[in-house]
Specification:
Immunoglobulin-like, binds calcium ion, Alpha-Beta Plaits, Rossmann fold, seven-stranded parallel beta sheet, four-stranded antiparallel beta sheet, 4 domains, alpha/beta, 14 helices, about 725 residues
Length: about 725
């Protein structure tokens, strides 16, 4: 029952997704304005564009998020597998399939519905007020064009055309990503992790070992590895028989799509094998979300959060959070709430989400590339023209090499085949199941996205503290203009192609100087000379021409910085307080970076003096010791030397319940705050003979507890001293 239901929904959805490549989507499938062919695209490429109908896609599942407060009753019912009221609210039979990340649920419909019906049902759930968001769980597709039978002629990087997509731009290769000079600056850092959410990966002789990834494909019949989710993200193949993904859908060999994308990001360099990757030394986290016929939104959003290091119910936490998450996948329609929430969460966790625009040739961008916070990438051909298949639209941030033919140069450049120069990366010879390592040639916005993810990984390798908005700003400002004769230079495509063509060399050279502080935070004693030490460097060896240390205006006391215009500044620590400083460095390009350091001034606790007490043998002695701390820190007492049988509490209560034998006993005690220990307090306790006690009583006044009035006298003296010191320090400050 479940299998046939799945098959019918898969079949319908496949048709839906497949048609995206060649047909205009129907308005009912899209929340965004109806896609329109981008200006300049030859109409002949879109045969059947006015085709009146195709089978409506069917939906078997919904993604919902309960309202945080008004959804409480429903949440409790769902936790107990009570689905009656939920179904009543939806006017359809629903059950929970599983919990999703982001406090969401995946619901199963007893009967699959058309996308229109599923959207109406979702609207009813939202209208109840108990459900914050509800939407169909749609299938996403890899954003690569169908393979074609172009015989690769030269597997080497420097072949012809070889990996043209990495080369410095020339007249015949205006679309190159300009990587060779970028590689002089860095080949990537092993501290930067790129997650690739795709079909998984094949271990390949030209790939480093992958980090421990995860396989999120939850539907066993799509996973092709015999089960649902598991910790093995290797790609078992995604081949399909004719009609397997829907009536009339052709058979297809396994795509090994994830291996191609991963190879573009980080194939090994200078090993004499195959080609190279954009960022050969960064580390890769494979996250499998696509299987046969594509991948569900519900699995992809869990994969996005997991890659960013966030919690996903039922899945072991990812110990290698990615800074960059590459999504070479998508489908038509406005950004779904599930995608938007997942991308918001990933961005908040410090990850950038790079997404392919999709391959319909439309002037609207696929979801999830059209979500806020996604970095949407379109593709260009070797001549820099927007690729004929590549979607463009207002969400686009940048264009990168994707291969194939240009929109206006659709015959392709002289010497190129009808398919155009394509992107050279890694693959597998297996038609269905994996076989041997090979190279592979593909074209698509998938490939363009991988170039951008790799370039960002190089940028963050130079300066890992850059924010998402700083990275995007540099990508935009360093992009090369589209060639004058290309589709994206046309007036009617302005604002739809992003800032221009990816230029890795210019992007890396725009990375701001990197500051390394010797100490980002330190503790100093009052009156000490405190060193603020830093060093800085700029990509490409640009000299640092200025260092400026500044003390924050909000500091508790003003301090005078010595050598404030050098890497190594210093100041005299005031009496107390926490102080913030910033260092701004500027290089000869005018690029600047700022880092912050903090210094906390700490006085160690001061123990109050104690006159030597005495106690009669066999009697009890109890002393309450006192301490002051100029910073108001809590102090903890520690015994250094105690008489046998005596104890000292952390709060400073010295207790000797049975003081014997007669004699004189040394006591040594210290107190510490969180950063330092006081000078030891030493005194001695006399244990006197019982008979002698009355004779001596007039002398030392000994016996029993040490008089509290003496302690208060001592405390008063310390308080006066403190006030004097504070006054003196204010005077010093005024004078400076
Ligand atoms: Ca599996
Ligand atoms: Ca698996
Ligand atoms: Ca290689
Ligand atoms: Ca202190």
């Amino acid at each position: 029952m479940r299998t046939s239901l799945l098959r019918s929904s898969l079949r319908a959805l496949f048709v839906f997704a497949l048609t995206l490549l060649f047909f205009l989507s129907t308005p009912s499938l899209s929340q965004s304005p109806e896609p329109r062919l981008k200006a300049g695209l030859p109409s002949v490429a879109i045969t059947g564009a006015s085709s009146p109908s195709h089978p409506a896609a069917q939906v078997g599942r919904l993604i919902i998020k309960l309202h945080p407060t008004r959804g409480g009753k429903l949440r409790a019912q769902l936790a107990h597998q009570e689905h009656g009221r939920l179904s009543a609210l939806a006017s359809a039979s629903l059950s929970v399939e599983r919990s999703l990340s982001g406090n969401s649920h995946l619901l199963r419909l007893a009967q699959p519905l058309s996308i229109d019906e599923a959207r109406s049902l979702s609207a009813r759930l939202r209208a109840s007020g108990e459900v914050e968001s509800a939407e169909p769980d749609l299938l996403m597709q890899a954003t690569t064009m169908s393979p074609f039978s172009l015989a690769p002629n030269d597997p080497a990087y420097a072949g012809s055309p070889g990996q043209w997509h990495y080369m410095a731009p020339t007249a015949l290769n205006a679309g190159g990503a300009d990587l060779p000079a970028a590689w002089d600056l860095t080949l990537g850092s092993g501290n930067i992790i790129v997650a690739v959410l795709d079909t998984g990966y094949r271990p390949h002789v030209d790939l480093q070992a992958m980090l421990p990834g995860y396989d999120f494909v939850s539907v066993a019949s799509m996973s092709n590895d015999g089960n649902g989710r598991d910790a093995d993200a290797r790609d078992p193949g995604d081949y399909v028989a004719a009609n397997e993904c829907g009536s009339g859908a052709p058979a297809a060999r396994s795509s090994w799509h994830g291996t191609h994308v991963i190879g573009t990001i980080a194939s090994l360099m200078n090993n004499g094998l195959y080609g190279t990757g954009v960022a050969p030394n960064v580390r890769l986290l494979p996250v499998r979300v696509l299987g046969k016929c594509g991948g569900y939104t519900s699995d992809i959003v869990d994969g996005i959060r997991w890659a960013a290091g966030l919690e996903v119910p039922g899945v072991v936490k990812n110990l290698y959070p990615a800074r960059i998450i590459n999504l070479s996948l998508g489908s038509s329609g406005g950004c779904s709430t599930a995608f938007q929430n997942a991308i918001n969460d990933a961005n908040a966790a410090g990850a950038m989400v790079v997404v392919a625009n999709g391959n319909g040739g439309y002037d609207s961008v696929n979801q999830p590339a059209n979500c806020n916070g996604a970095l949407a990438v379109t593709a260009h051909s070797i001549d820099g023209d927007n690729a004929d298949y590549a979607n463009i639209g207002v969400h686009t941030v940048i264009s990168a090499p994707g291969g194939g033919c240009g929109t206006l140069s659709s015959g392709c450049a002289p010497g190129m085949t009808v398919n155009g120069a394509v992107v050279y990366s890694l693959g597998n010879t297996g038609f269905s199941l994996p076989a041997s390592d090979t190279y592979a040639l593909k074209r698509g916005t998938s490939m363009a996205s991988a170039h951008v993810s790799g370039t960002i990984a190089l940028m963050l390798s130079i300066n890992p503290s850059m924010s998402r908005s700083e990275v995007i700003s540099i990508l935009r400002s360093s992009a090369r203009a589209f060639p004058a004769s290309s589709a994206c230079a046309r007036a009617d495509n302005q604002g739809l192609c992003g800032a221009g063509m990816l230029d890795a060399q210019a992007a890396l050279r725009s990375v701001a100087p990197v500051i390394e502080l010797a100490r980002t935070s330190q503790v100093a004693s009052p009156g000490a000379l405190v060193a603020l030490d830093a060093s800085a460097s700029s990509p490409g060896g640009h000299p640092i021409i200025s260092y400026t240390w500044r003390a924050a205006a909000s500091n508790p006391f003003a301090v005078t910085l010595l050598n404030a215009s050098s890497p190594n500044a210093s100041f005299i620590a005031p009496a107390r307080g926490t102080y913030q400083f910033t260092l701004t460095v500027t290089d000869d390009r005018g690029a600047a970076s700022t880092s912050g350091a903090s210094v906390r001034v700490n006085s160690v606790p001061v123990l109050q003096a104690v006159a030597n007490p005495s106690v009669r043998a066999g009697g009890a002695l109890k002393l309450i010791l006192k301490v002051t701390d100029a910073d108001g820190d809590k102090a903890v007492f520690h015994p250094l030397v105690l008489p046998p049988g005596a104890s000292l509490s952390a709060a400073g209560v010295f207790s000797w319940p049975y003081a014997v034998p007669v004699g004189s006993y040394d006591v040594s005690i210290a107190a510490s705050d969180h950063d330092g220990s006081s000078m030891p307090l030493n005194f001695s306790v006399s244990v006197t003979a019982v008979a002698a006690a009355s004779a001596a009583s007039g002398g030392s006044g000994g016996g029993g507890a040490f008089g509290d009035e003496c302690l208060w006298l001592a405390a008063g003296w310390i308080l006066i001293r403190r006030q004097r010191r504070a006054k003196k320090s204010r005077k010093d400050t005024d004078a400076s």
